[in-house]
């Protein structure tokens, strides 16, 4: 989709489960591109007052719901192997969040204002929770009854734990609406009942001229009274079942009990390492410093090609020949590419297809949404576009 030129504080805002209001600026951006098509109820759907797409986006933007609790069903069918092994008992936060990239999962969510949130994974016999209460943050493993505590002191209030994966329909709808541009069609497509509540269906999709996108449509069910997204469904352009489907099965807009944001009695609490709690510290651990150096090298070679739903990112792959060009020229010889571990290589081979073109030769790695081309000379092209579009972009650069 179109690049997201968010303000610096928006990435933290997206992660705040309590802030169930799309930025007001979205309404202004969308106004020029949204078709004024009113909702028409189909048979069996609730009869609601007619509303245009622009009015519905404005309703989302005006929503100020900050207190709710409920159950969310998350289904991801991206064509990836199961990532369940990364989660399970004893897993850390990043491992549990990675599980959401495949299969079906059930979450319980709760929010009480900008400083209290809870996200609980309930797939396994033992629950795993991420809890924030003020500046205190806990990751609690129900299997071991152990919790890791950290403090957000120094980061200010109003930011949630650093969740990398959007966990609610609001999180996903927020990102989709901020990407609206003149390559996008936005309409209202009927009504529905979600988690026992009446909702309008907002339909977002590429215009016909934007061929090459792997995204067919995005459908957001918006609570007719509250303006809160209740369900988010992304369907690939090649049809079939949804690639991402996230929706409330139960929702309550009352204030959650205070105990929701407290650790269970008897939990064994340990403190997170200080460097993990204070990312604004003067000195990074040596391992992290090396990682940031590598990211800086990548950023220098990053290019964004195209616009809208067929945007492709191009960069020098770590350890590839293109990444080594500068050093090779200085040394008078080609720097060797880093070796890929055997297990990782086998995984990539299973996903990839060998291809060739004006760019040379390489491998295309495919999912139902995001595809990537890694050329043998070390250039990486990736985007929510078809493999054919990737090859076309790579050929055009030569």
How would you describe the overall organization of this protein?
This protein has 398 residues and is an alpha+beta fold. The protein has helices spanning 10-14, 25-31, 53-62, 93-99, 169-178, 274-277, 286-300, 325-331, 342-351, 387-396; strands at 67-76, 103-112, 116-121, 128-133, 136-141, 146-151, 184-194, 197-206, 215-223, 229-236, 244-252, 268-271, 303-305, 312-316, 352-357, 360-365, 371-375, 379-383. It folds into two domains: 10-277, Clam (outer membrane lipoprotein receptor (LolB), chain A), CATH 2.50.20; 286-396, TATA-Binding Protein, CATH 3.30.310. 21% of the residues lie in helices and 31% in strands. The strands form two sheets. A twelve-stranded mixed beta sheet has the order 7-8-9-10-11-1-2-3-4-5-6-12. The chain is globular. The two termini are 24 Å apart.
């Amino acid at each position: 989709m179109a690049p997201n030129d968010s303000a610096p504080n928006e990435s933290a805002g997206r992660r705040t489960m309590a802030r169930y209001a799309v930025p007001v600026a979205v309404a202004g951006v969308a106004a020029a591109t949204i078709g004024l098509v009113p909702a028409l109820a189909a048979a069996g759907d609730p009869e609601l007052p007619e509303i245009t797409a622009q009015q519905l986006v404005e309703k989302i933007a005006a929503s100020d719901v900050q207190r709710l609790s409920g159950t969310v069903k998350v289904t991801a069918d991206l064509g990836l192997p199961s990532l369940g092994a990364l989660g399970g008992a004893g897993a850390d936060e990043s491992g549990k969040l990675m599980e959401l990239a495949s299969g079906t999962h059930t979450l319980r969510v709760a929010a009480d204002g900008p400083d209290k949130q809870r996200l609980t994974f309930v797939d396994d016999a033992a629950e795993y929770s991420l809890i924030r209460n003020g500046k205190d943050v806990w990751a609690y493993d129900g299997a071991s009854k152990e919790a890791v505590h950290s403090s957000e002191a120094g980061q200010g209030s109003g930011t949630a734990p650093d969740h990398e994966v959007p966990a609610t329909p609001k999180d996903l709808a927020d990102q989709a609406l901020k990407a609206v541009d003149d390559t996008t069609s936005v309409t209202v497509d009927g009504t529905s009942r979600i988690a026992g509540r009446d909702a309008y269906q907002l339909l977002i999709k590429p215009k016909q001229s934007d061929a090459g996108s792997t995204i067919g449509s995005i459908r957001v069910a918006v609570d007719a009274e509250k303006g809160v997204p209740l369900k988010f469904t992304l369907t690939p352009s090649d049809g079939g079942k949804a690639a991402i489907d996230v929706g409330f099965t139960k929702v309550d807009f009352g204030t959650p009990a205070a105990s929701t944001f407290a650790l269970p009695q008897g939990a064994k609490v340990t403190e997170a390492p200080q460097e993990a709690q204070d990312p604004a510290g003067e000195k990074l651990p040596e391992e992290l410093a090396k990682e940031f150096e590598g990211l800086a090298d990548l950023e220098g070679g990053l290019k964004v090609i195209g616009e809208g739903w067929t945007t492709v990112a191009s960069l020098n792959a770590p350890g590839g020949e293109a990444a080594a060009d500068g050093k090779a020229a200085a040394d008078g010889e080609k720097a060797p590419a880093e070796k890929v571990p055997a297990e990782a290589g086998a995984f990539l081979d299973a996903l990839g297809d060998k291809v060739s073109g004006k760019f040379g030769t390489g491998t295309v790695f495919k999912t139902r949404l995001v595809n990537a081309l890694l050329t043998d000379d070390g250039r990486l092209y990736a985007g929510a576009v078809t493999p054919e579009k990737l090859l076309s972009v790579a050929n055009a650069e030569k």
